Amino acid sequence: MNPEGQKEGPKKIDLNRNDMPKQTPERRRHNFSEVALGYTEELALKEAKRCLQCKKPRCVTGCPVEVDIPGFISFIAKGDFMGGIRRIKEKNCLPAVCGRVCPQESQCEEQCILKNKKGELGIGRLERFLADWEAAQGKVDIPPKAKATGKKVAVVGSGPAGITVAGDLILLGHEVTIFEALHRAGGVLTYGIPEFRLPKAIVAREVDYVRKLGVNVLTDFVVGKTRTVDELFKEFDAIFIGTGAGLPWFMKIPGENLNGVYSANEYLTRMNLMSGYRFPASSTPVKKHLRVAVVGGGNVAMDSARTALRKGADESYIVYRRSHAELPARLEESENAEEEGVIFKLLTLPIRYIGDENGWVREMECIRMELGEPDASGRRRPVEMKDSNFRMPVDAVVCAIGNSPNPLIPSTTSGLEVKQNGCLVADLETGKTTRDRIWAGGDIVTGAATVILAMGAGRKAARSIHEYLTNGKV
């Protein structure tokens, strides 16, 4: 009721999401500092109060790890940030990561009621705000753990799937050890995503959280070489395999063996895991290239093209065989790339790389494409245009067209069924593989996908492993 005693009308719905501050394109293309700066407390409160607090929240159904989205947002709206981060961590042990790299626009935010009215809610931005707020307090809230069961689980791989499995199972009372092949934990979060999109200090902070929960993290341990899966079974009751998809694809066209032709895995790993972007402060040299062509249209391609600019390239290209509408990259990432000056060569397909007398790539021959009927992916199929060949001068090419799982574990572990594409066969609802007491999830099962889908697979596998360890059922 208003002061005159008249009944108030319905509350007006604010459809406009609060923008998140970020570095200007002119500034950020010359540094590796984080592009997006995050919500201030004032912006977070304003955004949280836009949530409709639906009785039947569809946003939760769009979250692969089942976070209580209206719940944590309501805590923010009340100014109870500790309550908010606790609510998130009931389901998600990587909130600072998910708030930065999850495709919320096609998951939780896509399901939001505001979408029906052509509005948007910054769910991911609010999640990031809470995670960063907690870190700024200088202490991390550790949830209670169940009574120790005496059961031991080995988790192979410390990427999003492995960390999620470990975080869930340790809270259920099981002893968990993560085995990581590289010298730093985090998997693709550490070696694959650039500093300007996901700072390594944040990944280290999230990994440290699972350590504080009690998870043992062993690095420089290559399962399949240091010890086999069968040897791990002498100590562990169950094993989860979450080794991702780190084997790069190439196009198998002439000239791919020339110097200056990289896989995106190699290019980004040198920059991220080996800190090449900090040379000469780091000991990993990275050759400066002036005209870089990145083949592909996904997030990895955008990361590579934007990295090339920051390393001093005069021109950085995205070379993609379809049109802008079919780009698989997140809209935010392609927009950031365009703002920073990445040049998009669309409807373009490389057919060979041409080198100089010293074996370095100097040109890329391409053919122009046009779009035909939709293919199995639902996108319009690119068709070559006759006699449309042309050459581009380049001194580096980064191939970012996809990855497959590394075959090491399947080749050293009997009883694991593998698909033709190299992915492990596993039940998508439980993670159970074709061998008893072995579960798997993430990119090694699905092929290259998103961080949050890998985490969702980890959550499902953790439930199944727990059921097996406590009841003997799968």
Describe the 3D structure.
- By secondary structure, the protein is of the alpha/beta class.
- 32% of the residues lie in helices and 16% in strands.
- It has helices at residues 25-28, 41-48, 58-61, 69-77, 81-89, 95-101, 108-111, 123-136, 160-171, 188-191, 200-213, 229-232, 264-271, 299-310, 331-340, 408-412, 443-446, 451-471, and strands spanning 152-156, 175-179, 216-218, 238-241, 247-248, 261-263, 291-295, 315-320, 343-346, 348-355, 361-374, 380-384, 390-393, 396-399, 403-404, 438-440.
- The strands form four sheets. The chain has a five-stranded parallel sheet, covered by helices on one side. A five-stranded parallel sheet has the order 6-14-7-8-9.
- A hairpin with a 5-residue loop joins strand 10 (348-355) and strand 11.
- Helix 2 crosses helix 4.
- The termini are far apart.
- The mean pLDDT is 93.
Q: Based on helices, strands and strand pairing, what is the structural class? A: alpha/beta
Average pLDDT rating? 93
Q: Care to count the β-strands?
A: 16
What overall geometry do the principal axes of the alpha carbons give? globular
Number of helices: 18
Strand % is 15-25%
Radius of gyration: 24 Å
